[in-house]
Design goal:
The chain has 16 helices and no strands. By secondary structure, it is mostly helical. It has a domain of 132 residues: Hypothetical protein, domain 2 (Endonuclease III, domain 1, Orthogonal Bundle), CATH 1.10.340. It binds iron/sulfur cluster (SF4). Iron/sulfur cluster binds next to helix 14. One of its GO terms (cellular component) is mitochondrion.
Length: 300
């Protein structure tokens, strides 16, 4: 299957339309304060054409005598197989990702705020539950002013039954106050500033940068990306934390794949490479997957 067919240009187009001048942000350097992240998960947006030009460039450089960096031996085959298995784009993340459930008819600032909120809600929460909570918030009025005027009790009721609801109410309130007072009602446009918000860690920050600002600053590694990367042998050594997996992936995965890999693998993890009982028997990677062949385990 053509990879370009897998990814439509929806998110990119939407983001560009919304960004206007605000999209001209400087790329974020990535010295992260990986503190506050407490297990967000993600509704991810993705979709773009993927080419192999970067890989050609790497090969040419290697032919000129430069040292070849480590990469998983059969990653291209494995990745193509995942593209094929994901061709229908019918996983929960495809219809309930963070940019899909955010209000695309709202102003750019409100849209970005909702992207941030939807990712905060998605931590430890199924996409269906996050989507339903966002729908209730939008009906209530999901903008900074209105959320700040809403009591904690009502906010908790609106987002119920998302995981860690009480803590998320606190994060949403404190974050909304910061956005109002420090960022003129918008969200920050760097990874560092996003990570300084309550409850926001590197994974969420990279996803926000991608979905809200159309900026690729790093790979958003959630529990699905972490698990599948380890099963497929995409980390040189097994990793025991998503943040370590992010670093390991960014060391070899060509940058043009960074934007899309989260969405691709999350859907794959929701449908085939399940956390418990992965469907290896129907997976196209079963012959070339270290986990399926007993060479990798989920235990680190
Ligand atoms: S063979 Fe099994 S463990 Fe490997 S990618 Fe496929 S579903 Fe996941």
């Amino acid at each position: 299957m053509s990879q370009s067919k897998y990814f439509s240009g929806r998110c990119v187009t939407r983001s560009r339309k919304l960004l206007g001048n605000a999209g001209n942000v400087s790329p974020a350097s990535v010295s992260l304060t990986a503190d506050a992240e407490q297990a967000e998960s993600a509704g991810k947006r993705i979709k773009r054409h993927l080419s192999v030009e970067y890989e050609k460039e790497s090969v040419e450089e290697n032919n000129e005598g430069k040292e070849r960096k480590w990469e998983p031996p059969r990653w291209k085959e494995q990745l193509n197989n995942v593209f094929t298995m994901r061709k229908n784009r019918d996983a929960p993340v495809d219809t309930m990702g963070c940019d899909v459930i955010s209000d695309t008819t709202a102003t750019p600032q409100i849209y970005r705020y909702q992207v941030l909120l939807s990712l905060m809600l998605s931590s430890q929460t199924k996409d269906q539950v996050t989507s339903a909570a966002m729908a209730k918030l939008q009906k209530h009025g999901c903008n900074i002013e209105n959320i700040l005027q809403t009591s904690d009790k009502q906010l908790g009721e609106l987002i119920y039954p998302v995981g860690f609801g009480k803590r998320k109410v606190e994060y949403i309130r404190r974050t909304s106050e910061i956005l109002k007072n420090k960022y003129n009602g918008d969200i920050p446009n760097t990874v560092e500033e996003l990570c300084s918000l309550p409850g926001v860690g590197p994974k969420m920050a990279h996803l926000v940068m991608k979905c809200a600002w159309n900026q690729v600053t790093g790979i958003g590694v959630d529990t699905h990306v972490h698990r599948i990367s380890n099963r497929l042998g995409w980390t040189q050594k097994p990793t025991n934390q998503p943040e370590k997996t992010r670093v390991a992936l960014e060391a070899w995965l060509p940058r043009e794949y960074w934007k899309d890999i989260n969405h691709l693998l999350v859907g794959f993890g929701q449908q085939t490479c399940l956390p418990v009982g992965p469907k290896c028997g129907e997976c196209l990677n079963r012959e070339i997957c270290p986990y399926a062949r007993g060479k990798r385990s989920d235990k680190k």
